[in-house]
Amino acid sequence: MTAIVLVRGDITRQRADAIVNAANSSLLGGGGVDGAVHRRGGPAILAECRALRASRYGRGLPTGRAVATTAGNLDARWVIHTVGPVYEGPDSDPAPLASCYRESLRVADELGARTVVFPAISTGVYRWPMDDAARIAVETVRITPTAVEEVRFALFDDRAYEAFVRCLGPEGAG
Fold first, then answer.
1. Catalytic site residues?
2. pTM attached to this predicted model
């Protein structure tokens, strides 16, 4: 069974086999988590992302999909990039957001990763409501078959942390 752990803090400061990047489809960096991962991880991540764009993802990484690169200077072996959906209102389909977590775990399994750290995908500039995003994240990780031993959610602020605590319960807080 996969342990789910919550921590407050900067995802780029986490030690794990894989860190999940809430990327944009270009894979070339951006703001929020994506920009932080690229800045702290250094040029090796961008170089591999450019190679992916030149080969398999000429039009960008589709929403809900995931792909891995080196972690560069991060304290991890890999970065798993996934593109979350933009929230369009109460009728937004949660399936692409759940797919980000499932696909990231699938890639982690292919890599042999045992510890994976996720951010709260789509909750920044993509505007997904934090409580709903936390519910989707926790439920999806709980039901997705995986060999990953620990999924850690690195949550940048108190609002995100508390939303995940409400979904997971205090036993996951770390």
1. 34
2. 0.96
